[in-house]
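Continuing the series of single-chain predictions for the mutant panel. This is the parent chain; the variants come on the following pages.
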Amino acid sequence: MDRTAQLTVPGAESALAHDPSHGPERAQAGIRAKAIRVLEANWTGTSTVPSLGLYPHQWSWDSAFIAVGLRHLSPLRAQTELETLLAAQWGDGRVPHIVFNPSVPLDAYFPSPDFWRSVTAGRAAGAPRTVQTSGIVQPPVHALAAWLVHEADPGLSRARGFLAGVYPRLAAWHRYLLHRRDLGGAGLASVVHPWEQGMDNSPCWDAPLARVTPAPARSFRRADLAHGAPEDRPTDLDYGRYVRLAADYRDRGYRDAPGGGDGAGQGGFAVEDPAFNALLIASEHALARIAGELGATGTARHARAERLTGVLIDRLFDAREGMFLCRDVRSGEPIPERGVSGLIPLLLPALPRDVARALVRTLTGPHFGLGDTTPLVPSYDLLGESFDRHRYWRGPAWFNTSWLVERGLRTHGERARADALRSAVLDLADASGFAEYVDPYTGEACGATGFGWTAALALDLSYDPHGPNGRSGERLPHDQATASSELRGGNRE
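Parent structure:
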């Protein structure tokens, strides 16, 4: 790592030297210093890995969340994070969920580049020739992140042409999702693999995954079990199904099949997910703001976002459950499982008041227990048959989803609940060593520690949510961040 690009906490040393009576200020400065150590350790020179051992490459939505935190300290590095990711975009517009670091050994992570074969299998879809990637995607939070990064230092952003550079790529990314991935024909984007939605082994996927014949166990070797307890990770059966889906998608040249086709009609996996689509809608609003900053009109994008909000409600909201449900594109039926994904649409500003209130009731009721039995938002229904407090997305609480819900609560005027959730994220991120995820009841660390987005989002929440731009807080002026050294990494298109 180039040490000339080190991050520092503005005022941290003086804050730590204050009298203990300045408790909140002292605690937040301490959290910031620890979070920055994680982000420094995970920095490769052009991007930030989620975890040094478990996830040693660049992940798509991880980098978006990491950029949100980095904007407070080095807006330049935050811009570089997003530019590096978007440099690996495919010709058809998709942003791959992994950009592989060629210096990392192939056996350090599975599925590795030789499994995805992006350069050859993805040729027809426009996979880049100079970098190896996966062929699937992750939730489209990138335009929202880009707008927040711009707001952190508009002068630097304009001087570098940051928004002008990323806007065409983000627009192409949204076109891909809105057209190539409208597999259900109603306007919502579908995911074709659980890894795309980001909540890998949620019980919400159990029914559609049951149609998938798993790959033989001898055909792959799981690298994740070397870095985490087996009882915390997806089962071998689920993993075999993930491998089968990914291999089938690769073998048909990463071709999407609108209206069902061989993606949804022959035993495959195609799901309309509320969180994925809510993030797409939120990013459409952000793209409209970016267009306005660039001198264009964002009216059509705002209108599209509001129209999609209506489609999301009509198609996925279940008033009896008080939340959004996933929809199996193949069967055409909702999936009757309560996952945290169904609460993420609270993020949307145009959500009708009755829908927002229903989500808050569900969030704080017995199924998720926020503020009562759980300090963070659990990933799955506490009362569900498939609940497991330690197994990946089947119950544990994750920091990125709590960050999204905190933002949603604040959007809809739930300031006290948002403040309480913010405090819980800070406390548990610190106490768990910035864990990947935690036991929803006790806060016990699970998965990897020193996790990138946990550190970055705790950093973001450590700043005053009522300050300028919502959470701009103090930041490191870009000239103090040694701009020239950071500019050497990442894409400058």
